What does this fold into?
Amino acid sequence: MFDQKTFFDHLKEKFQKSIEAYKTELAAFRTGKATPAILDGVTINYYGQKTPLHQAASISSPDARMLIVQPWDKTQLKEIETAIRSANLGLNPINDGHFVKVPIPSLTEERRKDIVKQMHQVTEKFRVSQRHIRRDAIDEIKKAQKDKQITEDDEKKFSENVEKELKNFMKILEDVAVKKEKEVMEV
It folds into this structure.
C-alpha cells in the first residue's frame, strides 16, 4: 500500500542527505582560512594501511592561518608531512619533531577562480543527484498508480509535490554554493 506521509518523509530525507553530503564535500575546499576539513581528503600509510589523516592524528586550528597536526604516534610525523605535501592542496607542512604545522597561505586570485570552478563541478554533480532522487520518486508514484494503489489525480498531485520538494532543495543547494563561493572569493 502506498503511504503518502512515509513516501514524502523518505523523499525529504534523501534530499536532506544529499545536501549534507554536498556541504561535507564543499568543506574540503580552501577558503583562505584554516579549517581542519581542508585535510579531510589526506590519507597516510599507517602501518601498511591507507588511513584518513584525522584517524591517525588530531587536527586543530589555533588561528585563521595555521593548522596543527598532532599524530597519535610520533613515528608518523614524516609520513604525515609527506602525505600533506603530496595531496596537491598547495600546502607546505613543517615538521618540528612533535607535530606538523601547516601554514595556510593566502589564495591568489587565479587559485580562487580555479577553486570556484571545481566547486561548480561538485555543485553540478549534486544537482544531478537531486534530479535522480526526483526521477526515482516519480517512478515510484507512477508504479503505485499503475498498481491501482493511488488514483490518477493523486499521481498528478504527488508528482507536483515531488517537483516542489526538488525546487526547495535545489534552492538550498544554490544558497550553500553561493555562500561558499563568496567565502572563497573573499580576500
About this structure: The beta strands are 43-46, 49-52, 57-63, 66-71, 94-95, 100-103. The first strand starts at residue 43 and ends at 46. Helices lie at 4-27, 77-85, 109-146, 152-185.
